Every structure is written in C-alpha cells, then in structure tokens.
Amino acid sequence: MITLRKIEKVVQNKSGPYYILRGIDLQIAEGDFVTIMGPSGAGKSSLLSIIGLYDHDWSGEYQLGDQAVHRLAAKKRAELNKQTIGFVFQQFHLLDDLTVAENLDIPLSYRNIPRDERASLVADSLDRFNIVGKKDLFPHQLSGGQQQLVAVARAVIAKPKVLLADEPTGNLHTDQGREIMQLFKKLNEQGTTIIQVTHSEENASYGNRIIRLKDGVMV
C-alpha cells in the first residue's frame, strides 16, 4: 500500500546540510498497524507528515496505492490527501467556532457528498462514537478525552485508507489514552491501516510493527 524509497529531508544551516531524514526505505501493507518510535528530534513527525502528504519538501520515491506521489504536483497531492488520509493530532485541532457535528462534517464536505448523505454519515458517526449528546457542543465545552474522541471520529468519518496519529494520547490522562488506543485497535481490526508516532511502549503494543528512528535514520 505504501512504499518509500530513499526518502530524504534536508535543510541548510550555517554549517552545511542537516538531514532530518536520510535514506528511509519502508513498506507498509494494507491493514498494518505500524508504530514509529525514537527520541525527540529523530524525525518521527517529519516522516509522518511526508506519508500524510502534508510536507512536500523532500526527495526520493513515494508510492501510495497506485499513485507515484513523487511525480504529483502539490495540488494533486492535496487532493490525494483528502481522499486517502485521516490524521489525528496531539493537539486535537478541532475548529473552535464549529459544533461537534459541524467538525465531523468538514472532511465530508471535501468529497462532494450531498448534504442529506453527509447528515446521515455524521449521525452514524455520533452514534458509533457515543457522542450523540455532544453534537451541539463546541470544543471548549468538552474534556480533553472527549475532544480527542471527536478528533478520531472526524479523522475516520470519510473512511480513509490510512489513519495517521501523532502522539494521539500525549495530552490525555492514562485511562483516556487507553480508551483511544483501544479504539484504534478496533478500527485496525475493521481494516483501517494505522501509522502512529508515540514515545509510549504501551501504545506501541497495540500495533503489529515498530519502526525505530534515530537522527533521521531507521535503526
């Protein structure tokens, strides 16, 4: 499903080139639950941003399904992102001026789905994640765990082929974090490919593979 060959990300500083990522070769199959681990500054979030089609400043080859990403223009990559990728952030990134239901509707609006069908999908998602009673609330009215639950629901509502998560439990209490990880495990068992970045060995145990980075290199 995902094949990376010799992916490199480099920035220039006063002392010369500095490699954030170097020589990354990686294959991820459909249905995998992969964890990327490593110390701070290892390049974990940078690699996730490249896989998620958010970062275009890199070199190498990236195959996503039948698409050669490295040959696509930025606009085409953005379209592929909307059609293929769901992303769960540590900081939730919900839109503060929209209700829970309206936040869930955002990814569907990118796909030209008729309004009535979108309303039905939002209702199904609210029910699936047990947040029907929160649908008219705004993010600031929710706890951290509830906000992350909404963020996960938003990330998967359009049934992305790949779900990416960057330290998804970093701002949650232990029990809330376990609830989110158990939800990820269930989504993976239902067929969603998941790639997470985490420092937590417990969170990593929910997946089936661990990729370790150090100084931008796979080790």
Question: What do these coordinates show?
Answer:
It is a single chain. The protein has 219 residues and is of the alpha/beta class. It has one domain (2-218): 3-Layer(aba) Sandwich (Rossmann fold), CATH 3.40.50.300. Helices cover 35% and strands 27% of the residues. It has 7 helices and 10 strands. Strands 6-7-8-3-9-10 form a 6-stranded mixed β-sheet, sandwiched between helices. A 4-stranded antiparallel β-sheet has the order 2-1-4-5. It is globular and about 55 Å long. The protein starts with a strand and ends with a strand. The mean pLDDT is 93.
What Rg, in angstroms, do the CA atoms define? 18 Å
The low-confidence parts are none
Question: What is the global morphology?
Answer: globular
- Terminal-residue CA separation: 22 Å
Short description:
The chain has seven helices and ten strands. The protein has helices at 44-51, 74-84, 100-109, 115-128, 144-156, 174-189, 201-204, and strands spanning 2-13, 16-28, 33-37, 59-64, 67-68, 85-88, 162-166, 193-197, 209-214, 217-218.
